[in-house]
Every structure is written in C-alpha cells, then in structure tokens.
Amino acid sequence: MAIKNLEFRIQSWVYSFLILNSAFIIFASCSFKKETPPPPDLIDENKMALVISDISIVESVLNTEPLSAFNDTLKKLNVFKEHHVSNKQFLISLKYYSENPLKLKRIYAEVADILNKKLGLPAADTAVKK
Q: Which of 3, 7, 14, 20 is the most exposed place for a label (fewest CB within 10 A)?
C-alpha cells in the first residue's frame, strides 16, 4: 500500500512538473520583442519610400531590356546617387524596417501611392497612413 501511494505521489509530481514546465515555455516564447533602436544612418520613411519606388521602376525596366545583369548594377547605383544614399545605408535601413513591420507597411503604402501617381492612377486606398 505504501509503494502505491509513493508511486502516485511521484506520478503526480512528474505531471505537475511537466504541466508547469510546458506553461512556462509557452509564456516565455510568447513574450513581446522589444523594438530595436534605429541605426545611426537610418534613411527616414519618406525618403525610403522614394528610393524603393525608384528601384521598383528600374527593376521593371530591366526586366524588359537585354543585358539586364550589367545594366542592373549601373541603374541601381544611379538611383542611390540620385537620392544621396549608399548601398550599405539602404540595406541597413531596409533590415531595420523589416524588423518593424508596421513601419515597413507604411513605407510600402507610400510606395504604392508614389507609383500610382507616376502612372496617373488614383491613390491606393490604404488604412495604414500615419
């Protein structure tokens, strides 16, 4: 009788440990990630939208041109020069905005508006604006 009682206590302790451990793992994995601080040479959201829209136009032109691999590098460098942005600065800013999805969503909503204006279309209906 004492052995059965001891087995029951061990089983209940093991089950309690597993349940509490699982609950801890679930709560720990659901914690909110703190926003990463912006890098020192971050491109602001408006300028980033302009750069991305110009790169999108360049890439769409390159898809229709022959020898696009050579022209690709040259035209993207011209976009960066036009906006006074380095390739490294663009990539760092894109990484930062990718880690902050709400900011990235606002940027791409603005990119859609810029591209629609250049095409003469009405502005996109987005509820993401500031």
A: 3
DSSP letter assigned to residue 127: S
Residues 50 and 111 in one domain: yes
* 10 found inside a domain: yes
DSSP category for residue 109: H
Find all residues with CB under 8 Å of 107, minimum gap 6, and list them: 45, 48, 49, 52, 97
Could you tell me if 86 and 27 lie in one domain? no
Q: How far apart are CA 50 and CA 90, in angstroms?
A: 12
Distance CA 52, CA 111 (A): 7
Q: Give the global pTM.
A: 0.64
**Quick check: helix, strand or coil at residue 57?**
helix
Q: Are residues 113 and 58 located together in one domain of the fold? A: yes
Residue 119: pLDDT band by 50, 70, 90 thresholds?
A: confident
